[in-house]
Amino acid sequence: MAPETRQRQADRSRETRRKLMEATVACLVELGWSGTTTTVVAERAGVSRGAQLHHFRTRGELVAAAVEHLGAESVLHLKERARTVHGSVVAVVELIADFYASDLFTAALELWVAARTDPDLRTVVVPLEARIGRETHRLAVELLNADEAKPGVREAVQITLDLVRGLALANQLTDDGNRRRRIVRHWARMLEAALEGDGL
Amino acid sequence: MAPETRQRQADRSRETRRKLMEATVACLVELGWSGTTTTVVAERAGVSRGAQLHHFRTRGELVAAAVEHLGAESVLHLKERARTVHGSVVAVVELIADFYASDLFTAALELWVAARTDPDLRTVVVPLEARIGRETHRLAVELLNADEAKPGVREAVQITLDLVRGLALANQLTDDGNRRRRIVRHWARMLEAALEGDGL
């Protein structure tokens, strides 16, 4: 096979994967886990069932890959936006909170909840959750320019992430945006003091 | 009908309701929303389908009543335990965090997530969520003996509840108890300072 043909095939294959993963997240957000069947996803992505099976053997594999893919893309997007806020703790915490109160969180929540009572799905999701947990912690440390050697700083970063997760959950059924913004700003001021390492 | 007969019937009716609601929560925790059908619940509760229909017309009604019932019982239990900790902020925050990282939260999470993509269920769950939100806030204020007139105290109480909600979510797939206890103790110390109204 000529190298250009091989390159074109690889591009097409990547494009098919991307289409499937984006359709999966859209389905999770719109229809929930139970409505996100491989058939519905293939149709929405405009991909044949054969091509879909070539990329993802099971629904669990497809959905986990989709959440991981969207996660990675969102991290890049978040880092880019973080560059524009020049290290303001309030602005960074607002960015992280918005990052959580997004379709990514909604899609992940559908997957996490389904995995709790589905042993096969669980084996896929538990390592994914651990990986995403480590990566978001590292990202928050970086964006906040946090020195974890100072007493209490590591805990304050963790509180930030658990808090925005709780706030994102409160945003699932109704728009909780106004309350969220108030809480986030208040916490950001407490965090600012904690990052100085006041030793609490 | 003799008054004693009427009383016995009322007792039996209450007992049937209680059995159905407890079986519902057990099903939600064990099987998730999709496995919690009215048939499975009636079987587990040892109640006829006719009797079940007399008490709850739809699955949504049954599940919402079950979550509300368990919520009210848990609040009583929490208040009782709170009496034994004599106003220690750390102990109270630990109690609230344990209250959230319980089967009640797991059952409610199944219901909340299902309601997001089910319009009928949503009309039942949105007011329930608002009511539970108000009640837990009031309960937290009471247990923490918080003076919301002081600047920042109201926000600190809200941060507590959103934080324990985020921590409870992290506990769904794997046991996150050790990390949770560390974070809760750290936050409780920050909260203690905030309750003094340091004006942040």
From TrEMBL, chains A, B:
In terms of PROSITE patterns, this protein maps to: HTH_TETR_2 (PS50977)
Q: Which UniProt keywords apply?
A: DNA-binding
Any idea which residues the entry calls the DNA-binding region?
A: 37-56
Q: Where is the HTH tetR-type domain positioned along the sequence?
A: 14-74
- Residue ranges that the Swiss-Prot or TrEMBL entry lists as coiled coil: none
Would you indicate the residue range of the signal peptide?
none
Q: Which SUPFAM superfamilies match?
A: Homeodomain-like
Q: Which domain of life is it from?
A: Bacteria
> Protein name, please?
AcrR family transcriptional regulator
Highest classification ranks of the organism: Bacteria, Bacillati, Actinomycetota, Actinomycetes, Pseudonocardiales
